[in-house]
């Protein structure tokens, strides 16, 4: 998306970083006309819960040394923890 000089000035004045703008565009809901992207506290809390769950799963996998999946094309054969090295 293109930005205007007004947009850039307001984002600086209101301490809204480019990363925050990206989040608003990704998480925000549009209004009926599609000219506004809005995020509310409910949207943000839901995203925080999702990220916390993702972090919990990553920490669980890390504690077990990682994980792997053996596959043949589109068929998943087995799944395993990587607590020891596998040679191929």
Along the chain, the helix and strand elements come as HHEEHEE
Q: Helical content, roughly? A: 40-55%
**What is the radius of gyration?**
21 Å
Number of strands: 4
Main sheet makeup: 2 strands, antiparallel
| pLDDT averaged over residues | 91
The low-confidence parts are: none
Distance between the termini: 46 Å
Strands across the major sheet, in which order?
1-2
Briefly note the structural class of the backbone.
alpha+beta
Percentage beta strand: 15-25%
Shape: elongated
Q: Count up the helices.
A: 3
Please explain how this structure is put together.
The protein is 48% helix and 19% strand. The chain contains three helices and four strands; from the N terminus they run ααββαββ. Strand 3 and strand 4 (75-81) form a beta hairpin. It is elongated.
Annotate the secondary structure layout.
Layout lengths: L4 H9 L4 H10 L1 E2 L6 E2 L2 H23 L3 E6 L2 E7 L7
Antiparallel strand pairs: 1-2, 3-4
What are the defining features of this structure?
alpha+beta, 3 helices, two-stranded antiparallel sheet, 88 residues
Short description:
With 88 residues, the protein is of the alpha+beta class.
């Amino acid at each position: 998306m293109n930005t205007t000089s007004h947009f850039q000035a307001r984002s600086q004045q209101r301490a809204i970083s480019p990363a925050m703008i990206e989040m608003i565009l990704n998480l925000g809901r549009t209004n009926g006309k599609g000219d506004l992207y809005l995020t509310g506290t409910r949207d943000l809390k839901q995203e925080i819960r999702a990220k916390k769950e993702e972090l919990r799963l990553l920490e669980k996998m890390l504690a077990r040394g990682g994980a792997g999946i053996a596959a043949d094309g589109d068929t998943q054969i087995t799944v395993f923890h990587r607590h020891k090295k596998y040679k191929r």
